[in-house]
Amino acid sequence: MSNRKPALATRLAQALRYLDADTGAVIPPIQPVATYARDEAYQPRKPYWYRRDGNETTAHAEAIIAQLEDAAEALLFSSGMSAASAVIDAMAAGAHVVVPEVMYHGVLDRFQNAAAKKRLEVTYYPAGDLAAMAGAMRPGQTRLVWAETPNNPYWEVTDIAAAAAIAHGAGALLLTDCTGTAPCATRALEFGADISFHSATKYLNGHSDITAGVLSMRETGDFWDDLILTRKLQGTVLQSFDAWLLIRGMRTLFLRYERATENALTFARHFEGHQALEAVLYPGLPSHPGHEIAMRQTRGGFGGMLSVITTGTERTAIDVVRACEVFYPATSLGGVESLVEHRKTVSGEGFPVHPRLLRLSIGIEDVADLIADFEQALERALAP
Asked: Which of 106, 182, 109, 102 is nearest to 148 (CA)?
């Protein structure tokens, strides 16, 4: 027998070599049960005794992600926001946290709300600015540093290893949100992050048919136990059917991500310097300020997320979205279909984003169709 350990892509494609011992089925089943009978000694048969604790289907998906992340454990939630909220709610009252000024708007709203209610002390730093991050630290008091990389929607890149050194030097945990680059590309825990967060709705699932969030931790301990309890009490565990769909989606993660990255790089190269655009923001371009860092820590490709800033007015940018015929005018990312959105409209007036910024999620379609569609949309929107 070969001593070779199957590659991660192989293990993922086979859902960790799932094989039903009784039937020979190669697809994991869905376990929709809400409660469990105890054994003859009146003890739980598994680590869960009610649905809020988890079940076999959710645990299987968590085991796959833990291998993807090289994590001690992973914990699935009913949405990315519920996973992020669990971290905030598990923090001790009055804890000091350091977070980016610009990040996913839902998570930013949660931190701002917690600060306004004096639930947490929050200090903000410009995304990707390590000097500002270091300056925001309170040694012995800061409990958590949140880094989103690449950062939505400008795609600033944070050096995870350097951020980890800053956080750990002050006695804090580092949490990274790398939703824009799936863990088949960016394994944040290997670079020193303590907690990896992903909106599993996006690349991990890849089919825009569930919402899910996941936290993975390099070493478990008291804070991890607090997260498990928070999920249980809030009832935000990922449900069985969604966990099964997530397993289904993750089996093609490497293929989907590779194609999306290839398409995005081709698309970004085509439109860089385009007369109808002021900027193309994509870490895969050598002109991007974070390109060299992204090269070091994003080993499986730069992903399919990019933004452009149009010429003209805010109305021009919105008209580009309205004129697209292949791109869907929708909010999300990481699916097989390509999406475009006017970020200010989606995030709201109070969110600090350029009024002419369009965020694009590049999917797995024929890239020539995507390029032609965006060309005609620009032409129509800018027509006199």
From this structure: 102
Could you report the per-residue pLDDT of 45-95, keeping only the tens digit for each? 888 889 899 999 999 999 999 999 999 999 999 999 999 999 999 999 999
CA 112, 159, 362, 320 dihedral sign is positive
Query: pLDDT digit string (tens) for 296-319?
Result: 999 889 999 999 999 999 999 999
Look up 177 and say whether it is catalytic.
yes
| d(C-alpha 214, C-alpha 224), whole Å | 13
Q: Is 309 helix (H, G, I), strand (E, B) or coil?
A: strand
Tokens of 40: 């003859």
Catalytic residue check, 369: no
∠ at Cα 300 (294, 301), nearest 5°?
60
Q: Which of 52, 138, 232, 251 is catalytic?
A: 52
Total number of domains in the chain: 2
Which listed residue (104, 154, 282, 328) is catalytic? Answer: 104
Query: Is 353 inside any structural domain?
Result: yes
Whether 242 is catalytic: no
Please indicate, yes or no, whether residues 115 and 130 belong to a single structural domain of this protein.
Answer: yes
Active site residue 45: no
- Kindly provide the residue ranges of all beta strands, DSSP E only, lying in 266-383, ordered along the sequence: 277-281, 305-310, 339-342, 357-361
Our CA angle for 369, 373, 376, nearest 5°, is: 140
Question: Domain containing 31: what range?
Answer: 8-250
Parallel, antiparallel, or unpaired for β 73-77 and 213-217? antiparallel
What 3-state class would DSSP assign to 377? helix
What are the tens digits of pLDDT across the range 330-348? Answer: 999 999 999 999 999 998 8
Report the alpha-carbon distance of residue 28 to residue 59 in Å, rounded. Answer: 11
The domain boundary, picked from 233, 250, 267, lies at 250
Residue 260 and residue 239 in one domain: no
Catalytic residue among 51, 143, 202, 259: 202
Catalytic residue among 159, 177, 319, 373: 177
